[in-house]
Design goal:
heterotrimer; A mainly alpha (281); B alpha/beta (393); C mainly alpha (270); A: 281 residues; mainly alpha; MetI-like fold; two-stranded antiparallel ribbon; globular; B: 393 residues; D-Maltodextrin-Binding Protein, domain 2; 13 helices; 36% helix; transport (chain A)
Chain lengths: 281, 393, 270
């Protein structure tokens, strides 16, 4: 239980909180504020210099140009799809690792899940590019079933992003499942619940915050990605690409565009915070 | 409680200070002056910061045999720091930081850098090897202003049409294959991923739709831009992917994901070296192309070393090395004698002015029409960027 | 939980299949590092060891690795200090805005890298540049540390939730000074969480590319930046594969050690 404030603890609290908060405010929140503030400026269209005249033209353009809405929606759906796929994959995998596999196996399995995090994001994305190509491994594996590989495009982006962020989902879910006391599951069984019922009424509610915590990663990492799209996206463009293409040319517009993922993610974080997800991160 | 208040107050004050600095900094340039060219060179500053395309400033760290940076450092005592830029836009923004002395800018960046005053005029007398540069590269609209050179030409190349000889028949000789006929290769057409690619569509329209009256693919009024965008949107349906780097283009053509689209000579050569059945041609409409220029920053902290670099990089031997490594036509005519492949200049058409007359080098589109029209307003690069986002949808 | 045999088999299969999919691209990377074909053509046209030789002689890769290690270690060190302080504040004290702190700490990692990247870039340019601090390793470290703090914060926080504050109180009651309590009670209990958090923070920094792109100065090349630059070069892509293959092989060691050290938890939380 956190201690109730006393004057000594208040002093200590200040000493504890001041460095991280100062860092966060100066290095990060200040930067964000500068960026979002610059969304209200204009750009000299020829020189790309920022002109400091206060206006809301960028937001007006953002809201009235249909192509931005299309891109934002596409990005959002990809992020949701990636999150759902990762959750669906991570739940059985983490369950198996934490509850089904023998104790001896847990550590090697976890190492196996974590190791790919070190392989380099770009290298993995390029490996998928090779696999998804016209004469790649995926096509060859599907050919006997009369199927065709997805090729480069939105599907490929979803697959690769889901692949890249999967460990970020497995890790918190595994941690939650491992913490789940065996006696709770036994109690459920003693009360006559079948495995399915136990899963639904005991296990799932217990891992819900962990899944939401993992989703913070899968959702937000997908929402801002622009490199994977360039590698396997074919002709797809996402919010990240548009921001990246505007950064050097028209910083105020890029800043206005950045406001979209910022708003989406702040809303998402606020929503999952209620479910206690941030505590299980 | 007093302590906490103080710290909160202090951080609030710091944020305000940050915001004020942000608001007050950086004045919009745009007067086009951009510093002065020096009359003579002084002692080297011991250091030079360079922005370059990948492969333009090799120091042997990627391939020990490819190194023209260390010899330069040894000769001049100027330590080289290189920042590799991926796109012209990135180069422009890096130059704006004022941390760099020189940049290998392409024509879609040069005018912007001149106009914003980020690039300074260059005193070509201080670059002895300038005299050997092909005359056709001097005093061009993409590297000079009012008769003053704003940089030293480095090399050039055309954006060719490449196709898989086994999949594209009959052999195309016109850009029609990727525009009006693109549906034949639906899902396998590729195009360069940049707003400047709009000029390729405009170039095709110059011939295909003379009624539009396009004289220069970089000088499009709103109506002409709309026509080019409509054409590109049609092409978009057939595009498999847009490319921006070598590797992507090579694997795509090799694997057959792309069968037709724009390319550079060097990519065509490498793809052929990988035993893929491809061919690159300069279509009958001509082509767009790029010509890179080494520019000096108006805020250069190390101008003396920068000038030494400029002279070094266009000296025959180094110019030949870069041209061969990167795969482009060198700008120094004496470089042709120094290439390890004696046919390099022939393959890349380095001294073939007839060939390059058919190439429209990248130039930044600006409001003032580059084709000399006084009665029309042209679309600028910012509009092209937005149009490109629209095209990709 | 009593699972039927079928359920166990199905779960086992799903996990095995999942892991197989995770490793196929990595195996491909490994295989391609021996691929004689320069553009990772499939199937390989032949096997060769020349990329490994080229990679071992690549100064660029070595320097980039060194830069990445330096940036990662510095960022991790800062994150360890700041994250631990914040975790103690939030989990051992009650104050107004406590939940806001954890919310704010998550922001740097939750917001897209490109947004953080351009925000930091704009800020550094307006604030640091005028006082003569250019972009370089320092700016990269600041950027990385910012999003690494939350990782340490979460790891320490999870541990603090599990060890009772009464432990430290007992130590104090037994007459230990606060540094002694820290040295003999608190720190040993935190050690593995610190290690796990630090390792994950380091891994995150080690593979970061977007924020790095916007915060690195001239000549500051971390390994991901080196990879990015070289993948775009036709001559270099196979060498990149070798570096990646090496990283995968070498990384098993620290990950395994982390697992051993923190046997009581999942061995790290994101």
């Amino acid at each position: 239980m956190p201690a109730a404030p006393t004057s000594g603890s208040r002093l200590r609290l200040t000493a504890l909180l001041a460095p991280p908060l100062l860092w966060l405010t100066l290095a990060y929140l200040g930067s964000l504020a500068i960026l979002l503030l610059s969304a209200f400026w204009a750009t000299d269209s020829f020189t790309s210099d920022v002109v400091h005249t206060w206006n809301t033209d960028n937001f007006h353009e953002l809201l009235t140009t249909p192509v931005y809405r299309t891109i934002a929606l596409r990005t959002l759906s990809i992020a949701v799809a990636v999150t759902v796929i990762d959750a669906l994959l991570a739940l059985p995998m983490a369950f198996c690792m934490a509850r089904v596999a023998g104790r001896r196996w847990r550590r090697p399995l976890l190492v196996a899940v974590l190791t790919p995090l070190w392989a380099g994001y770009l290298v993995k994305a390029y490996a998928w590019r090779v696999m998804l190509g016209e004469d790649g491994v995926v096509g060859a594996a599907l050919a006997p079933f009369g199927l065709h590989g997805p090729g480069y495009g939105t599907t490929a982006v979803v697959i690769v992003l889901a692949y890249l962020w999967l460990p970020y989902m497995i890790l918190p879910v595994y941690a939650a499942l491992e913490r789940l006391p065996e006696r709770m599951l036994e109690a459920s069984a003693d009360l006559g619940a079948g495995a399915w019922r136990t899963l639904r009424s005991v296990v799932l509610p217990a891992v819900r915050p962990a899944v939401l915590a993992g989703s913070v990663f899968t959702f937000s990492l997908s929402l801002g990605d622009y490199l994977t799209v360039q590698i396997v996206g074919g002709k797809t463009q996402l919010l990240g690409n548009v921001i990246a293409s505007q950064v050097t040319l028209d910083l105020p517009m890029a800043a206005a565009l950045s406001a979209v993922p910022v708003v989406l993610i702040v809303c998402y974080l606020a929503a999952v915070r209620r479910a206690g997800a941030l505590d299980s991160l | 409680m007093r302590k906490r208040k103080t710290s909160a107050w202090r951080s609030a004050a710091a944020v305000c200070a940050l915001l004020l600095t942000a608001a007050g900094c950086g004045s919009g340039g745009g007067d086009g002056k951009g510093g002065h060219a020096p009359d003579k060179l002084g002692k080297g500053e011991g250091k030079v910061n360079i922005i370059a395309w990948a492969g333009y400033a090799e120091d042997g760290s990627n391939d020990p045999k490819v190194d023209w940076v260390h010899p330069f450092e040894k000769k001049t005592g100027c330590q080289v720091n290189t920042k590799t830029a991926g796109t012209s836009d990135e180069m422009v923004s890096l130059m704006k930081t004022g941390q760099y002395d020189t940049v290998s800018a392409s024509g879609d960046a040069t005018l912007r850098l001149i106009a914003s005053g980020d690039a300074a005029p260059v005193n070509t007398k201080l670059v002895p090897h300038y005299k050997d540069i092909f005359p056709a590269l001097k005093q061009q609209p993409f590297n000079s202003k009012d008769g003053r050179m704003y940089g030293i030409p480095h090399g050039r190349g055309a954006n060719l049409l490449m196709y898989r000889t086994d999949k594209v028949k009959p052999a195309p000789d016109s850009w029609r294959a990727v525009f009006d006929d693109s549906a034949r290769y639906a899902g396998h057409v590729t195009a360069y991923d940049s707003p400047i690619y709009i000029a390729d569509a405009a170039l095709y329209l110059m011939r295909a739709k003379p009624s539009l009256g396009i004289k220069n693919p970089y000088a499009l009024d709103q109506k002409q831009l709309d026509a080019a965008v409509a054409l590109l949107k049609k092409q978009h349906k057939a595009v498999g992917e847009y490319w921006s780097d070598y590797q992507k283009e090579i694997t795509a053509f090799k694997g057959g994901d792309s069968v037709i689209g724009t390319t550079w000579q060097v990519i065509a050569n490498l793809t052929k070296a990988e035993k893929a059945p491809v061919k690159a041609v300069l279509p009958k409409e001509g082509a767009t192309g790029w010509s890179d220029t080494w520019m000096v920053s108006a805020k250069a902290e190390h101008p003396n070393c920068a000038y030494r670099w400029l002279d070094w990089i266009v000296s025959p031997k180094v110019n030949a090395q870069v041209a061969e490594y990167f795969g482009e036509a060198p700008s120094n005519r004496k470089a042709c004698a120094e290439t390890s492949d004696p046919n390099h200049c022939a393959i890349f058409h380095a001294d073939d002015e007839k060939y390059f007359q058919r190439v429209h080098f990248w130039t930044t589109p600006i409001k003032e029409c580059l084709d000399g029209r006084k009665d029309a307003t042209c679309t600028d690069y910012a509009q092209w960027t937005r149009a490109w986002t629209e095209v990709k949808g | 939980m009593r699972l039927s045999r079928t359920a166990r088999v199905v779960l086992g299969c799903v996990t095995a299949a999942g892991l197989a999919i995770v490793y196929v691209p990595l195996l491909l990377v490994l295989l391609n590092s021996f691929n004689a074909d320069r553009s990772f053509g499939w199937p390989p046209s032949g096997l060769t060891g020349r990329w490994w030789r080229a990679a071992l002689h690549s100064d660029g890769a070595r320097e980039a690795l060194l830069t990445s290690l330096k940036a990662g270690l510095a960022a991790t060190a800062i994150a360890l200090v700041l994250g631990t302080l914040a975790a103690y504040a939030v989990h051992r004290h009650r104050f107004f805005g406590r939940r806001t702190v954890s919310f704010l700490l998550v922001l740097p990692i939750a917001l897209p890298g490109i947004v953080s990247g351009i925000a930091l870039n704009a800020a550094f340019r307006t604030v640091l540049d005028p006082i003569g601090i250019g972009f370089g390793l320092f700016t990269v470290v600041v950027g990385h540390a910012t999003f690494c703090v939350v990782i340490v914060f979460n790891n320490i926080g999870a541990r603090l939730r599990r060890i009772a504050p009464s432990l430290a109180e007992a130590s104090a009651d037994l007459g230990a000074r606060s540094w002694q309590t820290f040295r003999y009670v608190t720190f040993p209990a935190m050690r593995s969480a610190l290690f796990a958090g630090g390792l994950l923070a380091f891994a995150l920094s080690f593979d970061e590319i977007v924020v790095t792109t916007f915060t690195a100065g001239p000549g500051t090349r971390t390994l991901p930046i080196w990879i990015y630059e070289n993948l775009a070069r036709p001559h270099q892509a196979p060498v990149v594969n070798v570096v990646a293959a090496l990283l995968i092989l070498v990384s098993v060691v620290p990950v395994y050690i982390a697992q051993r050290l923190s046997s009581d938890t999942a061995g790290g939380r994101l």
